[in-house]
Amino acid sequence: MATPVEPIDPTKKSSDITGPTSDEATVSMDLLDAKCLWNDVEYSQGAEINTDGKSYVCSFGRWINTED
Questions:
Q1: CA atoms of 47 and 64, how far apart (whole Å)
Q2: Range of the structural domain that residue 42 is part of
Q3: Which of 10, 15, 25, 54 is the most buried (most CB within 10 A)?
Q4: Is 25 domain-assigned?
Q5: Inter-residue contact 7 to 53 (CB < 8 Å)
């Protein structure tokens, strides 16, 4: 179940957001356990959040938009 969060606050640290992708990607091993930040709050790999009707999952230190 996704955690509801506030919209990104530009005065706080947040990880990059990318769109959904069907391409295979190569991930370096140092990113395997990379955490994601959202408004200075740390989330672990696989964490799901939602805000403003959009859902994101933490993947290798970035938020992936899970919307189509």
A1: 11
A2: 3-19+30-65
A3: 15
A4: no
A5: no
* Residue 54 in domain: yes
What are the pLDDT digits (tens) for 10-23? 999 999 998 876 55
**Bridge-partner residues for 37, per DSSP?**
42
The answer to whether residue 36 sits within a structural domain is: yes
pLDDT tens-digit series, residues 23-68: 555 555 555 678 999 999 999 999 999 999 999 999 989 999 987 5
pTM for this predicted structure:
0.79
| Number of domains the chain is built from | 1
Residues 41 and 3: their CA atoms lie apart, in Å, by 12
